[in-house]
Amino acid sequence: MAPTELDGRRTGRPNTKQIKRMPKKHKNLYHTYEKKLHIINWRKEHSMESVIDTFFPGVAGDKRTTARTRDMHTPRVQGNGCGVGTRLSSDQFKASPSWMKGFMMRWGLAIRAETRSGQANVADGEKALAEFKTSIRKVIKDNRIVEVFNADQTGINYEYLPKQTMDKKGAKTVWIKVSGHDKDRVTAMPLADSKGTKYPEE
């Protein structure tokens, strides 16, 4: 028969090993909307130091300065945000770092380092190249140009260092002797014409 009274105890597997639950080590803090609004209004009339001392007295050391001086390194996105928010007054929207952080969290974005690069679409590149060739040929024909020269600047390193070298096995630090000019470069300007002649001629 089913029990006539509901059992108020927790359901689940019985505790056979007599292991107690670990006490919580962290304490969650919750701020109501009224308190957040009060902090925002306080910041409008006082400095950031006053806000931290008044509402967050336990914050000290690096935690006190890191969050306040953090730079998101996303001026382009913040600039776009300011462009979208032109219909709002400066008091309503400022594209602050906190807005930038919320924007990135909302869309699942993060600051990442570039690992690979390439063309988005090879077909579009070939189409643009064909259009460029057509426009150049039209300019040459319309202006009766006989010969076309092409020159460009490029950097030449004084010294190229290898990425790998031979050393003893197990060595944690590998030294490579250099002349001290590994970052110095000279500017060269190669020149060629439409006939395939390179200048200066050898």
UniProtKB/TrEMBL annotation:
Domain of life of the organism encoding this protein: Eukaryota
UniProt-annotated stretches for the region Disordered: 1-24
Biased composition (Basic and acidic residues): 1-10
Protein name per its UniProtKB record: HTH CENPB-type domain-containing protein
Organism: Aphanomyces astaci
